[in-house]
């Protein structure tokens, strides 16, 4: 039996209309076929790029109710009261009192007379991101683990339309609930779509372009007022001030990590599109202004997928060294009949519990507990130099000599490379290639976020290690200790970034690594430098947890 969640006599409706802006590239999957990408981007029935309301509603609910049990029946009453629920395997449930519309993707925040974006983003503006899995045994691309996804660039606008049905009894609580949601959106806490732990999907509410209307539906006069558009309305920032509360919200607790660094050699990730004058180009993304503003620019980017892969590889190296354990070979009895190669690759990734807790692991079957998204989020890292998009487009043309001269002003220089024939000692036939290398570019800090609630939740499912006094899992502290070891190696210059790191690229120097724990943490509130933290009192407990984990967790 489907219930109406107590809002059958709805007399009040809160209507949010405004904009979200992407702060990183965004991917929402679609079943359509894009010849340029194995993972296409969602469109509506008219072929316009959009974020489906179902995807947006799920992300909004999770933002306010980060408990993984939310949405699985009546276990999270606060979520179910407004977002509805369905009984697993049964017919009981309640409809959602919150209605979320599809979010059209636009190049600018202008609306026409019908309230629709006047400048829908053209699919030609989509960017491509290619990802590859690295075999832990031989260090090359893993068999069958290569895919490309189309992504919506940063700096574009997503039309946000949301209704919350209420009544006289619930109006006060619903107003405060809506204020908490808007505050989180304004703080940039909403991540949408796929690969959110790898830098994609960061958005922020444009509070100055977002309004909240209160519509009374309890009389003919109020209905006419709604139809005329005369209902009371406020900007989002005023709504947050008027209806927000100081009550702590049970959102995810985050450890924020900022790495200030500078390149000592060219640092870049190769673009999936080669040039005609220069063979290999660095990966770029839209500048901060987005693809719809005048004076459009692009900037070099180290995608979160690449950064997270480098960090994970180092974490595995540390734990395997401590254990004296090699990665499993790709050709085993269990994987011999897997033509795609994914089974062998997943076995390599699944071997180390602390690494899985931090970086995630794919479920092997429905209901597979202790797996899924990891606790560590790694954002894209952008170069500070903004290159005019028209100039960058010339690098893909046959005659780009003039453009290469201009690109020197932005720290980009063509470098020619050749393979040497081992018999003649001369240049190998057909193996001369060129790379557009960045020299001396300044980069924004690398930003990492550890979801401490998710870290503890993942660790609770790994009962392989127990603390002597409490009998509770210590994998959370062990995983945090492992992350600190990775950061220590990063600061010591042992971890190159980007591509061609075995060919003289990727070397970097770290100036400082700042850790900011949540306010309710004993170390919270004030950023602390990594070296200072490692000399503090907490390090002893983390070291003990790491040692206990290595001694007790078999792999």
Features:
555 residues, alpha+beta, 8-stranded antiparallel β-sheet, 5-stranded antiparallel β-sheet, 14 helices, 28 strands
Task: Describe it.
There is one protein chain. The protein is α+β, with helices and mostly antiparallel strands and 555 residues long. The strands form 8 sheets. Strands 2, 5, 8, 9, 12, 13, 14 and 15 form an 8-stranded antiparallel sheet that branches. Strands 21-26-16-27-28 form a 5-stranded antiparallel sheet. Helix 6 (304-323) crosses helix 12 and helix 12 (475-491) crosses helix 14 (538-552). The longest helix has 20 residues, at 304-323. The chain is globular, with a radius of gyration of 26 Å.
Rg measurement, Å: 26 Å
How far the N terminus sits from the C terminus, by CA atoms, comes to 47 Å
Total beta strand runs: 28
- Give the averaged pLDDT, no decimals: 83
Major β-sheet annotation:
8 strands, antiparallel
The low-confidence parts are 69-74, 463-473
Beta content comes to: 25-35%
The general outline is: globular
Structural class designation: alpha+beta
Helical amount: 25-40%
Count of discrete alpha- or pi-helical segments spanning 4 or more residues: 14
């Amino acid at each position: 039996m489907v219930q109406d969640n107590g809002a059958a006599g709805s007399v009040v409706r809160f209507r949010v209309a405004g904009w979200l802006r992407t702060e990183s590239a965004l991917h929402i999957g679609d079943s359509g076929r894009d010849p340029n990408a194995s993972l296409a981007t969602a469109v509506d029935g008219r072929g316009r790029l959009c974020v489906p309301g179902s995807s947006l509603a799920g992300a909004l609910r999770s933002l306010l109710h980060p408990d993984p049990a939310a949405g699985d029946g009546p276990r999270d009453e606060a979520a179910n009261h407004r977002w509805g629920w369905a009984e697993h395997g049964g017919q009981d449930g309640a409809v959602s009192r919150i209605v979320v519309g599809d979010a059209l993707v636009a190049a600018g925040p202008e609306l026409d007379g019908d309230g629709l974006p006047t400048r829908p983003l053209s699919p030609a503006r989509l960017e491509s991101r290619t990802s590859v899995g690295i075999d832990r045994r031989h260090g090359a691309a893993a068999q069958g683990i290569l895919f490309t996804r189309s992504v919506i660039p940063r700096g574009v606008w997503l039309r946000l339309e949301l209704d919350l049905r209420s009544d006289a009894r619930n109006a006060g609580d619903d107003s405060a609930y809506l204020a908490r949601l808007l505050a989180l959106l304004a703080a940039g806490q909403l991540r949408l779509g796929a690969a959110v732990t790898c830098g994609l999907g960061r958005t922020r509410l444009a509070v100055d372009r977002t309004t909240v209307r209160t519509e009374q539906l309890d009389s003919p006069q109020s209905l006419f007022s709604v139809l005329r558009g005369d209902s009371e309305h406020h900007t989002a920032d005023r709504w947050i001030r008027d209806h927000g509360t100081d009550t702590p919200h049970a959102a995810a607790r985050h450890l924020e990590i900022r790495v200030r660094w500078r390149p000592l050699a060219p640092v870049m990730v190769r673009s999936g599109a080669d040039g005609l004058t220069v063979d290999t180009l660095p990966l770029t993304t839209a500048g901060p202004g987005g693809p719809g503003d005048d004076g459009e620019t692009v900037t070099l980017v180290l995608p979160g997928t690449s950064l997270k892969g480098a960090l994970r590889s180092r974490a595995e190296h540390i734990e395997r060294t401590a254990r004296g354990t090699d990665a499993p070979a790709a050709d085993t009895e269990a994987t011999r009949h897997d033509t795609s190669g994914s089974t062998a690759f997943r076995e390599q990734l699944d071997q180390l519990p602390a690494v899985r807790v931090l970086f995630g692991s794919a479920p092997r079957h429905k209901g597979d507990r202790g797996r899924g998204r990891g606790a560590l989020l790694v954002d894209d890292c952008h170069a500070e130099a903004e290159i005019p998009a028209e100039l960058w487009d010339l690098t893909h043309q046959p005659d780009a000599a003039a453009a290469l001269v201009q690109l020197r002003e932005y720290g980009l220089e063509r470098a020619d490379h050749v393979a040497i024939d081992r018999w003649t000692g001369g240049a190998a036939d057909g193996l001369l290639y060129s790379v557009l290398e960045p020299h001396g570019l300044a980069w924004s800090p690398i930003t990492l976020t550890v979801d401490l609630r998710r870290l503890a939740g993942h660790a609770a499912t790994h009962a392989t290690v127990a603390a002597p006094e409490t009998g509770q899992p210590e994998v959370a502290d062990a995983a945090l200790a492992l992350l600190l070891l990775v950061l220590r190696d990063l600061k010591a210059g042992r971890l190159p970034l980007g591509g061609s790191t075995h060919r003289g690229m990727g070397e970097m120097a770290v100036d400082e690594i700042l850790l900011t724990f949540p306010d309710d943490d004993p170390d919270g509130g004030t950023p602390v430098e990594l070296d200072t933290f490692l000399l503090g009192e907490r390090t002893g407990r983390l070291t003990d947890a790491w040692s206990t984990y290595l001694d007790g967790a078999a792999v």
